[in-house]
Amino acid sequence: MGNRRNRTDVYLCDKKAGLLERNDNGYSFTYYRDYLALPDAQPVSLTLPLTEKPYESEFLFPFFFGLIPEGWLLDITSRTLKIDSENVFDILLATCGDCIGAVKVIPLDEEDGF
User: Fold this and answer.
1) CB 13 within 8 A of CB 102
2) Which H, E and C letters describe 44-110, residue by residue?
3) Dist CA 58 CA 108 (whole Å)
4) CA–CA dist 26, 114 (Å, integer)
5) Mean predicted confidence (pLDDT) in 74-86
6) Kind and range of the H or E element at 9?
7) Between 52 and 4, where is the model more confident?
8) pLDDT confidence of 78, banded at 50, 70, 90?
9) Which residues contact residue 96 at a Cβ distance below 8 angstroms, ignoring those fewer than 6 apart?
C-alpha cells in the first residue's frame, strides 16, 4: 500500500487500548493484551466489546467512521489536508489525534512493532 500509514494506536482515557489496521482485506481492530489485563478496562465502543480476538471488517468500523468530520466540515478538512474525502482512514489518522471525547487515534510509524 505504498508509503501510506496503515496502523494506528487507539487510546481510551489516555490508556493505549488497541491497534487499528488497514490491510488488503479491509480493516482490523485488536485490543492490546496489556489493556485487557487492566482491572478497569472498558471497550472503546459498545460495538467493539473487550475480547482477545481481532475484529475484522471490509469497511472502516462504524465507531471509527463516526469520529471523522461530516458534510461541509469533511469537505473543508479534505481540501485543507489534501486528502480525498473518500479516504476515511487517512482522514481518521489526520484528524483524530485530539478528538472530543475519551478516544484518540495516534498513527504508528510503519517500522514500529506490534
Assistant:
1) yes
2) CCCCCCCCCCCEEECCCCHHHHCCCCCHHHHHHHHHHHCCCCCCHHHHHHHHCCCCCCCEEEEECCC
3) 21
4) 18
5) 87
6) strand 7-12
7) 52
8) confident
9) 67, 68, 103, 104, 105
